[in-house]
UniProtKB/TrEMBL annotation:
Keyword Transport assigned: no
Alphabetic keyword roster: ATP-binding, Nucleotide-binding
Keyword Acetylation: no
PANTHER family in the cross-refs: LINEARMYCIN RESISTANCE ATP-BINDING PROTEIN LNRL
Protein name: ABC transporter ATP-binding protein
An annotated Gene Ontology molecular function: ATP hydrolysis activity
InterPro entries with a match to the protein in the record: AAA+_ATPase (IPR003593), ABC_transporter-like_ATP-bd (IPR003439), P-loop_NTPase (IPR027417)
Length: 249
């Protein structure tokens, strides 16, 4: 189901979370909205609550308070309606080692419910978008780490999800592979995909995120258009400086 252009792709209000048995909230009153085609950066130091937030937004765990709507659908009441609309792409490579890149893509596409005729269309398109044609028929374990990361994302977007969660997709990658992957992510958004992007690398977020939310200890410390947050009060030279001053880390 494509996103309705008149509504936000993601609308979160007053999100709070305390894990069972926990002494305190790990998320407090998180409110945000993401529009179609945005790359929205979710930034914070270790333990800030990014993974908890993504796990709630992707319906893996329930919040203690608040609401989440994805393409207008209440994600807490109707997680099974929301799941076909989203894709959660984990940091770890989640591919089958005994299959080639193309076979992995076919397998995941089928899991997402694509028919053969749709797969025959989407597969070459996605291989081209991620510049993966020359690697498509190699065993995935024979591909470099950077290429595996690209296949990892390619497998998760074959069903045209309205909202894509990318959890630190460039960890451990060299500069060349990282830039290649960032270019592909930007192209995805130019084609109309909406992305929530978590990273520890501020220069990455500054390069590709139209808006960011900086959080720590489960609390939103700053949120807004990336360039406005940096230059707004003339204090910061870049996102890294803003992040360090805001979080103190
Ligand atoms: N299953 C859990 N049970 C109890 N507490 C948890 C659980 N998962 C996370 N936490 C706690 O919630 C807080 C936020 O953790 P979370 O993993 O969401 O942060 P993060 O920003 O993703 O950190 P990192 O960048 O290190 O992955 C931390 O204090 C963590 O210890």
């Amino acid at each position: 189901m494509p996103a309705d252009d008149s509504q936000s792709v993601l609308e979160v209000r007053g999100l709070g979370k305390r894990y069972p048995g926990g002494q305190k909230d790990v998320l407090t009153d998180l409110t945000l909205r993401v529009e179609k085609g945005e790359i929205f950066g979710l930034l914070g130091p270790n333990g800030a609550g990014k993974t908890t937030t993504i796990s709630i937004l992707s319906t893996l765990i329930k919040p203690s308070r608040g609401s989440v709507r994805i393409c207008g659908v209440d994600a807490l009441k109707h997680p099974f309606k929301v799941r076909p609309l989203i894709s959660l792409i984990p940091q770890e490579i989640a591919l089958f080692p005994k299959l080639t890149g193309r076979e992995n893509m076919r397998y995941f596409g089928t899991l997402f419910g694509l028919q053969k005729i749709e797969l025959d269309l989407k597969l070459p398109e996605t291989l081209a978008l991620f510049d993966l044609n020359e690697f498509a028929d190699q065993l995935i374990t024979k591909c470099s780490g950077g290429i595996q990361r690209r296949f990892n994302i390619a497998c998760g977007i074959l069903h045209d999800p309205a909202l894509i969660f990318l959890d630190e997709p460039t960890v451990g990658m060299d500069v060349h592979s990282r830039n290649a992957l960032l270019d592909r992510v930007q192209q995805l958004s130019l084609k109309g995909s909406t992305l929530i992007y978590t990273t520890h690398y501020m220069e990455e977020a500054e390069k590709i995120c139209s808006r960011v939310l900086i959080m720590d200890k489960g609390i939103c410390l700053a949120q807004g258009a990336t360039d406005e947050l940096i230059s707004g009060n003339g204090k910061y030279r870049n996102l890294n400086e803003l992040f360090l001053k805001t979080t103190g880390k």
